TrEMBL record:
Its main location: membrane. One of its GO terms (cellular component) is plasma membrane. GO terms for biological process: protein insertion into membrane; protein transport. NCBIfam families: PRK01318.1-3, yidC_nterm, yidC_oxa1_cterm. This is Membrane protein insertase YidC. Required for the insertion and/or proper folding and/or complex formation of integral membrane proteins into the membrane. Involved in integration of membrane proteins that insert both dependently and independently of the Sec translocase complex, as well as at least some lipoproteins. Aids folding of multispanning membrane proteins. Residues 389-567 form the Membrane insertase YidC/Oxa/ALB C-terminal domain. It is a multi-pass membrane protein. InterPro entries: Membr_insert_YidC, Membr_insert_YidC_N, YidC/ALB3/OXA1/COX18, YidC/Oxa/ALB_C, YidC_ALB_C, YidC_periplasmic_sf. Belongs to the OXA1/ALB3/YidC family. Type 1 subfamily. The lineage of its organism: Bacteria, Pseudomonadati, Pseudomonadota, Gammaproteobacteria, Moraxellales.
Amino acid sequence: MNMQQWARFAILGAMLVTAYLLILAWQKDYGHDSNKKVETPAAVVAHDVSADLPNAQSTAANSDIPQANIAAQPNTAAPAAVTQQLISVETDLYHLWINPKGGDIVRIELLTHDKNKDSELPFVMLESDPQRTYVAQSGLIGLNGPDGSRAGRPNFEVEKTNFSLADVKVQKDKDGKDIKVLTVPMVYKTADGVEIIKSYKFTPGTYPINVSYQVVNRSTQPWQGQMFGQIKRDNSEDPGKSDQGIFTLGTFLGGAWGTPDEHYNKLKFDNFNEEKLNVETQKGWVAVVQHYFVSAWIPGDFGNKPVKLESRKSADGMNIIGFTSPTINVPSGKAITVDATFYSGPKVQSELKDLADGLNQTVDYGWLWPIAKLLFMGLQFFHNIVGNWGWSIILLTILVKLILWPLSSKSYRSMAKMRVIAPEMQRMKEEFGEDRMRFSQEMMALYKREQVNPLSGCLPLLLQMPIFLALYWVLMESVELRHAPWMLWIQDLSAMDPWFILPLLMGVTMFVQQMLNPQPADPMQAKVFKIMPIMFTVFMLFFPAGLVLYWIVNNSITILQQGFINKSVERDRLKKETTSAN
């Protein structure tokens, strides 16, 4: 087999490797079609969710509460009227509902993210209804913790059940600066004089929510307990999946956690018991990750004492991941406040990276994350200039081509020379016939004389392959590109082209690019390479429009570059032949 044939197979191999890696990513990210869901009712009503709190020594009603350091005492709480009227809180980003029983967040609607590109309904992040359970729970357990008592979850009292931006007040932050805060206070009092104030604090324009417990001990005995925060979710499919025609696109759905030593770890729902999380750390986080969105608990500072991160399955098969604080001691006549941060919203890296080490890695770019992060930074830079993600992809493609221009030019020049000497090679093949040894020797001498490297033809594709794959993950994981329009019929760059125009254009540009390359002498190889544009066109029909757009622009620039180099090499060859003739 001669060097030109080896080059052909190298190029074909590189293309097949690209296709194989994309298929792996495709199989990883594409799930089954999700079932049709009931539309959100106009009025949100409470749906009773079992406590599943972290105390194994509780009654059957609270069988899944986390293990406290000290078992809870019998109930000493004052009688309270049970209410199922939810507390409604609406900010510029959220509309959420809190159940006074336990003070859990039972529903969150993201007002700046739509349910899907054809709906005006907001994206529902958390919810508790017969179709789906996904809630954020928190409370106090332990010796005197009300959530661990035999009476079940405490019923908090509130002054009103509707809060909005009109309730925002200016407060001082830890640095003494004025900030606007919307506070939702809830009060629970025990018969022996302990007052517990659970507060949710929202800052307009941001997603993190501060959840605090102030324990005011007016009793004659010291108070002991532990704070916990957990996310409870069923096994329903990811509502963040994108409709891809006959496919449904989604990425990892499951648990995640991180510590200062191990920044990012994924944990499948199926492994919440078998490979359960049980880690003690001073600074860490737990989360439930889905396509484009994440819910996470970030424990506060508990006096430099470690908190426990853990996962488990509830008795009814629910997935629970959360944290439990060290023991909190409140002497008689004293008050102590403990807190944690809860985040439930889009996976915006700039916001997540400041909350906890590794939380921004829930934007999972796969094993090519260094390249993917650079690509996303480039996309953000251009988006800040042009304000459109489609044009940003085009500008990014041009920038990448300029960076790779010197390397690719050498490769294209070598291919152009092979195109020029193709007639000479055909003459040599006819002259030496079956003498393969002599033909190979003469061909190698020709390559050396013309300074041609037949293997350099696969270099441009090898350089593009990791960039292409990394961009795939950027488009799939970056919520900024979710439902992002470009122009005309392309109204979602993260979804396939509904009219298949871009894949067809990609196939045309790939075919034109091949015509500029030296054609295979072997008839079978020639047929395979002619089929490749058709294969890749079909393959790209259901891939994100933004990815296909990148390939079209890349091919178009390559056509211009290669066409210019081909003409330049042909002129040099003609000039050389004219000089030799004279």
